[in-house]
Amino acid sequence: MTPNDTGEPEGRRPWERSPARSGPPHGGPGGPGDPRPAHGDSSWHTTRSVPSIVVVVLIVIWTVFAVQWKEKDCALVPTSYLLVITHGTPSVFEGCGDHAIDVTDD
C-alpha cells in the first residue's frame, strides 16, 4: 500500500480514516448526524408524511363509525361524530330516532 495525498494508505475505508483528514462527511446529505439518507430526499419526505397518513386513517375510521350512527337516524355532522367519541359504536338499542333509546338526551 502506498500513501495517498492525505497521508493515509490507499485502500483504507472511509469510516476508518481519522476525522481530521477525511474531507467531506460521508453520513448523508447534512453530515453524520443527519437522519436523511444519502440517496435523496424522497425517503426523507416519506418519513415526514407518516404522521399525516396516520391522521387520515384515523379520520376514515372515525367517519365509518359516524356513518353507523347516521344509520340510526342521527345527524352526521356534528352529532354522529360526537357520539363516536362519547359512546363508541351504536348498539341495537341506541339511536337518535323514535325507534331506539335516544342517546342525544344525555
Automatic annotation (TrEMBL):
The lineage's top-level taxon is: Bacteria
Q: Where is this region: Disordered?
A: 1-45
Bias-annotated ranges (Basic and acidic residues): 9-19
| Transmembrane intervals | 49-67
Q: Which UniProt keywords apply?
A: Membrane, Transmembrane, Transmembrane helix
The protein's name:
Integral membrane protein
Protein source organism? Streptomyces violaceolatus
